[in-house]
Amino acid sequence: MKCFLPGCWQTRGFKESGGKTVERGRRLRSSEAMRNMVRENTVCVSDLIYPMFVTEGEHIRKPVLSMPGICQYSIDYLLEEVGCAVGAGISAILLFGIPAHKDEIGSGAYAEDGIVPRAIRRIKEKYPDLLVIADVCLCEYTSHGHCGLVRGNQILNDETLPLLVKASLVYAGAGADIIAPSDMMDLRVGAIRKGLDEAGFTNIPIMSYSAKFASGYYGPFREAAQSAPGFGDRKTYQMDPANGREALREVEQDIREGADMIIAKPAMAYLDIVRDITTNYNIPVAVYNVSGEYAMVKAAAQKGWIDEKTVVMENMLGFKRAGARMIITYHAMDVVKWL
């Protein structure tokens, strides 16, 4: 029986003395130059998307205690940090807003003079070539902390959709290059696509958080974005971590509704999901290396338990190996230095 696998001795027609197969993987690991030449996956600066938090006020650079190195920035200081990112070669940021006031309907999310559209306008004035991705959700803006409108203890789906469309239109009008709905309401991608198209924003792509799981890894983000739910949890709209095939159904539905790119979130415990998406769908996939994943690495590195650079870069390669084309990560500025 003939073997046609790469490296098979029958294909090469070569054996050791005694007839045993010659298979020495270390030949291709013998030097750094050799390893670089045969490397299957690489991490590039262009892969990275830097998540950033913008807050109301001036001269604010407030560290997020559970995320060393990450801050909430007022617009003036945000522009400085954006300038550092652009100077380092980062070509895209993901923007989250923290309003001065919250209410039951999350009106700050879709206010024309809200913190995010104001920040987008300032960023695009100074750095017009930077891709600004606007996260679309109500959780940072609602007094109850949920991602949709609430009636009693119920999170309302269809009643929330018009507000997500309004927010998307405000961000697109301010100059956002990509709209990224993260709320996990059913049918929101189709509603947003229809709203953008009708308003003339036909060329604005949607990067949908399609496979977003109800995860314990989000804790530090909720401190950074001040978005912890005031009651209950988000398990009625974010996905059950036990379900992989359901994630593919969510992705397929979002593609049908008009998503141009897909986000899988979190990253490290969900690489099987990333692989399944990239295997089954011909669409660009981003993986979100979330706050809890970042915090764990930072904490262990500060304790001296791990080598931060080695572990972070290994994680980045794992994301690429699983099939992600883009990596949303709070490590972005460090990764650029190490590259």
Structure overview:
- Helix 3 (75-88) packs across helix 4 (115-126), helix 4 packs parallel to helix 5 and helix 5 (161-174) packs across helix 6 (188-198).
- The N and C termini lie far apart (46 Å).
- The radius of gyration is 22 Å and the shape is globular.
- Helix content is 37%, strand content 16%.
- With 339 residues, it is α/β, with parallel strands linked by helices.
- The strands form two sheets. Strands 1, 2, 3, 4, 5, 8, 9, 10, 11 and 12 form a ten-stranded mixed beta sheet that branches. Strands 6-7 form a two-stranded antiparallel ribbon.
Number of strands: 12
Major sheet summary line: 10 strands, mixed
* Strand proportion: 15-25%
First CA to last CA: what distance?
46 Å
Helix and strand element order = HHEEEHEHEEEHEHEHHEHEHHEH
| Annotation field: number of helices | 12
Helical/strand content category: alpha/beta
Shape: globular
If you average the pLDDT, what whole number results?
A: 92
> Runs with pLDDT <50, length 5+?
none
Gyration radius, in Å = 22 Å
The assembly state of the depicted protein chains is: single chain
What's the helical proportion of residues? 25-40%
